[in-house]
Amino acid sequence: MKLSITIATYNVQNFIRESMESILNQTFQDFEVICIDDGSKDSTVSILKEFALTDKRIQIVEKEVNEGLAVARNLSLQLAKGEYVTFLDGDDFYDLTLFEKAVNLADKTQADLVLWDYVTFYQPNEIEKLKAIRSDLLNFDTSDKIALLQRPSFTWVKLLRTEKAKSLGIHFPKGFTRQDIPVHWHLITKLSKIEVLPERLAYYRQQNEATTAKKDKKLFHLVFVMDVVEKYLKDEKLFETYKHQFYTQQLNFFHGMFDNIQEQYKAEALGLINERLSIDHIQFLKATNLVRPQTKLFLLGIKGDNLSHFKLKIWKLTRKIYRLIKRN
Q1: 246 in the same domain as 117
Q2: Same structural domain for residues 18 and 99?
Q3: Residue 213, pLDDT above cutoff 60
Q4: Second label for 194, Cα 20 to 30 Å away, from 166, 237, 275, 277?
């Protein structure tokens, strides 16, 4: 078997039919579909069973207890029998040529990892216009590890050689909503045979109820997953090689988390940041301009730089005015 398509589902009854149809109607057909349902309380599993009745390639694993996406991803990798594996989400859907193009490129180049581009949409009628936008992956240098690390970490923009993924011990850390970030770092820093498809072939649905859209304490996971990345880099003696890129992402996450989280959690968020913010971080901030300007102002401000604190207030006021104008 050439390809294992793994799809994680949880309460996606409104979207799973469209997602499954975009998989089963692919121009490439040599695959199995492993559906891991993470304890859905709606009709998701019933819909999956409808598809399984007419297509023997579909395997459904029903988990009684919701344990999160990481557990579902890890289980699906264990079950995968295909030469290649990809991890999809049950509320998104995909260009019908995606698997043919990804598998053909991997076969032709002997790549261990193929990345493609995507569209972020709110309404399906937006997709055709959005997918025509020039891909960021055109003329991309796949030997540039830093550029690869800067790409979105989403697991559903990746085709992996299954044997390679298993030999690397790819593992999604349990309990985190951003569990694909450590896996992205692991893959990019360890794999040398990487190729890109410069086309927008996945359609990423935005919905207010999605876990990643929430502004509650789950935003703390942006801090925690970078702890996982840091431990990995240090254990593998890679930290010095990738320190600047790691700090850039970590510090931007610090500010993004604090800026977006609900007011009631900001004190706790600040505590998490201060626990991790070191002299080395501050020296990095002062010596480079790799982080976003507002991140730099925020972090220097909480370390007592009054001018940075004042400049950040001006930036926030300007942003607020701009958003009001745009809304009206």
Answers
A1: no
A2: yes
A3: no
A4: 237
